Fold these 4 entries.
Entry 1:
Amino acid sequence: MLESLSERLQGTFRRLGSSGKITEADLDVALREVRVALLEADVNFKVAREFIAQVRERAVGQAVMQSITPSQQVIGIVNQQLVEILGSSAETLLRADTDPTKIMVVGGKGAGKTTLCARLALKYKNEGRQPLLVSTDFERVAASEQLQVLGDSIDVPVWVEETQAPAAEIADRALTEATRSGANVVIVDTVGTLTLEDSLADELAALADEIDPTEVLIAVDAMTGQEAVTLASKFDQEIEGTGIVVTKTDSDTRGGAMLSVREVTGLPIKLITTGENLEAIEDFHPDRIASRILGMGDVVSLVEKAKEVVSERDMKNVTQRMKSGQFNLEDFLVQMQQMKNMGPLSGLLEMLPGGGQMAKQMTGVNLDESFFAQSEAIVLSMTPEERRNPDILNGSRRRRIAKGAGTSLTEVNRLLNQFKDAKRLMQAMTSGKGAGGLGKLLGF
């Protein structure tokens, strides 16, 4: 996420900090580099200009250049400014005073609206709500069929009509069905567009008037940058949005849409989607995203993800084994399987301070499903005794394991070295000495 922007900014601040004391001229050079980085990331020109002006005013006004650690203070100011343009604080989805909560999802073609509707339905279902999905898109081929398939995959009912009708009429009948079936969240998928012509704007406005939505969420495709931001602004002007969902952030290395959309539209970013799985949707936290952009990590989100897939009892057990030095390859295998359920490994590494650089140093390692599959095959090719006592793995044993796993001796040696590194890192983290004291964050 935002890899190219993050690298540019971190490189600028490393150079700024290498000279110790900095002058106002040094600051101006650094801020010019930051401005270029923002513009190359497709950040809105006015947003980038105001960002630089605010950072410079704060830096000069606070006599940063005369401080003991000027570069760190500049980074702190940039971090504060990033948080501000991203929205200052997290804003959650609204809930209707009386059921059902009605959510209308709008946005450009290809922004992932239909999948977003299913993601929202799963999110609400996991919170104990009873969602109903509604299709009103007759323009895109098989749009309703796609929503039906997604609904079936998460066991959520879908209201689909065979005959084309105005979206407002379909939604009205769907609301009647929601009352009959006891659904307390209604999520309406709508027609996508590239230009938002008057006829579609009128149709969407009529739909909004009919259902009186609790939320009008505008899907913004992170990959299309300022085009998506401009379109989001038009949607807001025509039908009064309540929030933004930035989609496909896992594939967005630049960040222009995410960094611009709130300033341009005035609407809060409420959610982001971070992968292909329907579970890959997250509440948007401006402070955490700013920290990740500047390479400071996002340990809080990492812990939250861990708690979603690992029980408290298992956490305590593994933590104690780490602290006592008993952590072995059987534990490592379990940890890998749990990590796989937390999302792409590259995304998890980004949440650790310096994790982006760590990922780059793992040359030859594919940070995807194949990484986990190969690692599991290697560990499962060992005997129970070997998994519990890796120190006995001599050359002949390693060659046998490589043959059994269908891989090379080099890959076996690589995994064992990664296990040793992970063991040392985990012991430091659970003792509160690493990654911001992850052990303390976990409560052990």
Entry 2:
Amino acid sequence: MSSSQAFAIEVHGKSAGIVVADHGGFMFFAADGAFRALDRRVFKQVGQAERAAVEIINDRDRHRWR
């Protein structure tokens, strides 16, 4: 039996997706269309995936108020 690591990523109370340990990194699986650009992207650390998800929301909000 193998053990896998998975972590949920939330941004401002919204479920962005999960990251699952995969060959020396963490693969992102988007839970919402807003995070589609990150889907199946591999990050070296969970924190990098979380920062990428936050940046997507921040970029979207910046463009909304222009």
Entry 3:
Amino acid sequence: MTKAIDAVSKVLEPFANFMNNNKFMTVIRNALALTISMIMIGSFATLFDLVLCSENGLAKFIPVLANYSNIFTMINYACVSCLSLFVVFLIGYQLGEMNRQKPFITALLAMACFMVQLDTETLSGQLGAGSLFLAILVSVLSVQIFTGLMKFEKIKIKLPATVPSTIADQFNSIIPAAITVILFGTVSGVIITHFAVYTNDLIYRFIQAPFLNLAESQLGITIIVIAIMLCWWFGLHGNMAMKPVVEPLFAASLASNMTQIAAGEEATHFATKAFQHTFYSLGGTGIVISLAIAILFFSKREDYREVTKASFIPLLVGISEPMVFGIPIMLNPSFLIPFILAPVVSVNIGYYLCQTGFLKNSVLVFNGSVPIGLQSFMEYGGQWQSIVAVVIVIVVSILIYTPFVIMDNRNKNKEDANE
């Protein structure tokens, strides 16, 4: 077992360290996290539009409410349909700070380089999650190119020391910034000329869409969950390590669902934050609330029972660290298999519940310490099926964890006898 742990650690630890410590992964992760509040506002605007102004909502009985649907659609557009623009600015700003440049200059530069890649005739429809990969790529590359150019003193415009720093900084960076924008504009022009498509379409068609289709497949979401759980078991923060991979998927899926609902269609993407909260992070990473219940009913180990009692209330709002590090679950051979198996089985259950239409895909996100069950109910728009899903996940996970809790009792008895 020790040899197996060492072998997997050699693979996982460098990967997790890269994802956690690499500056590009850090700024991408932080930028996506900072957009959550806007996505939440936009998703609730969609909900209010459906409840108050749609023909199946309150407007059915009070027709005048239908006239105010544009209030919520405009809020949703501003908060969700401009998601890529927010991400470009946030990445450009943070990366500028890391590179010791003026962050507002790098943020605005990244936005300009991003905009020259888009079709100006349909600009309003290209600022959302469909351009997310392009936004990430352009913002990182533009700031790095600008930072490199700023090292050449001869291309900077020097102003006297008496000129205010705000103005001096602008003139100091104007030539490097101009070169950067021209470079990205040239790339865009060449792509349009030779491929008859805009850069955004090219990136979406050959990079973003295939990645999202793979990641949102049954096999893809299963692999993602296994990677997250393995990182956690080895003592690495799996959610943070995989966030740059998972968050663009969740954001794009949620934004697409909102667009489909606003157009009167069915939401088709299951991989959203609501899916994570319900099917593999319910009651904490690894669905350890089910382990806690199994321990309270079947464990004869007082140390486990005491840790579980102290951890149970945090588990009810999805905080699993006291349990994961208190038992501990990490590097504990007794719980490796169920810690991975319970979420894997649950996401596959969730996949089929969504694919069969029993549970309609989410158009809401609600982050924060919300009690389990209530969070799923809210994020899935008040569907009673979400409560059924929560019960199924908890019960199935208890059945998975219980044999290993009983087996751990026997192992403990043998250890005590040997001592």
Entry 4:
Amino acid sequence: MSQYVLDASIAIKWFIPEVYSHAARRLLASNHTFLVPDFFFPEVGNVLWKRVRRGEDTAENARQILADLNAVPVEVYLSQPLMPLALDIALQSDRAVYT
């Protein structure tokens, strides 16, 4: 079994047809362990809110997507304890901490 750090942009593709949704759904269909930072859930909520605000989806469907996503087992990690290492990696790789 593989472990993947799950980004909100991938999880959204499980429920909303976008570019690479088929590849994202293959991850969901397999027996993997998903790891997420604690800010994963607000990110997903924000994506859903934006879609409703732009008229791309309904509030009912956004709520259903969130419920469906909450049914996916994930291991949640607090971001704060990871910040020293994340900062070091960002400084060494010249990439944003948030990436």
